[in-house]
Amino acid sequence: MVRNLALILVFALLATLPAAAQSDDDFNTELSYGINLNSNGGLLGGVFFRSSYFVKERLYQFGGLEIVEVKHPKENRYYSLETGDHFIAGKQNYLFAIRPHYGAEYVLFRKAAESGVQVNAVGAAGPSLGLLVPYYIRYNYGLGSGDVRTEQYDPEKHRNFDSIHGNANVFTGLGESDFNIGVHAKAGLSFEYGRYKESITGIEVGFMVEHYFNEMIMIPQTENFSTFASVYLNIYYGRRK
What's the pTM value of the predicted model, to 2 decimals? Predict the structure, then answer.
């Protein structure tokens, strides 16, 4: 974590130096967006977008926003014998992270004028807004079709997993979200293909660490955390001018 933060600080200091003349290979602005995959988010972590602008030769600054789901490492999917619907055993809350950030991008290796791959070093940091959204299940309090109620999972009330008929839609508990504040930082490398001042596609791989000031309770009957570290892969598309 310290190493990553140091890299970000170096980028920030470089950005304060006087701007150099812009070369033909440098662009003025870029807008990109894409999907995020990470080791805490399952198959698809979330989405992001980023707006970059020229500072000096090879150096760009950017602002961005990332919205991802963070999953507990002990999540296990079960299926109801009654309905065939799935649910996460013991899960009480979803965790969604909203991460506005500011960072810098430095071009390590330029691509050829018309084609090739460009390699950039990327570092960013910013606040995190963590949303703990209640995880609702459909629980049968009776026999057979019985008395099925949609409620937030409670380990004291919902002791019998065989009585869980499945989970409810994520939007069911969205209005009851608990907001938590934290910070995050990340560093990585991006590999992009595309003509300068036209459309681009690329991937970014790196490491991210995030810390909240409260413990984020997702599965109450196991260990929960306030700090999350992950490796990530961003797949993005964008345009520059």
Answer: 0.83
